[in-house]
Amino acid sequence: SGTIISNADEGKTITLAKGAVAYLQLGTQLRWGDPTVTGNAVTVSPAGGADPATGSKWTIAAVATGQATIRDSGGPICPTGPMIACPMFIEEFVVTVDVV
């Protein structure tokens, strides 16, 4: 098992040891895109796709000492059909990872 980084960690800095594995798990309330990474300290890859109970999940590998920023954005999950209103907004998720 590894550290779980979730929506509750938005805006925080997480410290991981080099070689550690963590998981980014964003909730089911929004449709999340694929996260992007700035910096070379971590890599992010899909971890088996979206789980209906827990949402989208990615594996974060701490590959080098330093700092990286992980960003993602999510939008509403809207029903389809004629005359169905859907709110239009984007929620941003940003977390900084320090690898030591």
Summarize the structure.
With 100 residues, the protein is mainly beta. It is 0% helix and 52% strand.
What's the Cα radius of gyration?
15 Å
How far is it from the N-terminal to the C-terminal residue, by CA?
19 Å
Structural class call reads mainly beta
Helix content: under 10%
User: Helical segment tally?
Assistant: 0
* Beta strand count: 9
Residue runs with pLDDT of under 50 for 5 or more positions: none
**SSE order in H/E notation?**
EEEEEEEEE
Q: What is the approximate shape? A: elongated
How would you sum up this structure, described in words?
The protein has 100 residues and is mostly beta strands. The chain has no helices and nine strands. It is elongated and about 50 Å long. The protein starts with a strand and ends with a strand.
List keywords for this structure.
52% strand; 100 residues; five-stranded mixed sheet; mainly beta; 9 strands
Secondary-structure topology with pairs:
Elements: E1 3-6, E2 13-16, E3 21-26, E4 30-32, E5 36-38, E6 42-46, E7 56-62, E8 66-76, E9 91-99
Parallel strand pairs: 1-3, 2-9
Antiparallel strand pairs: 3-7, 4-8, 5-8, 6-7, 8-9
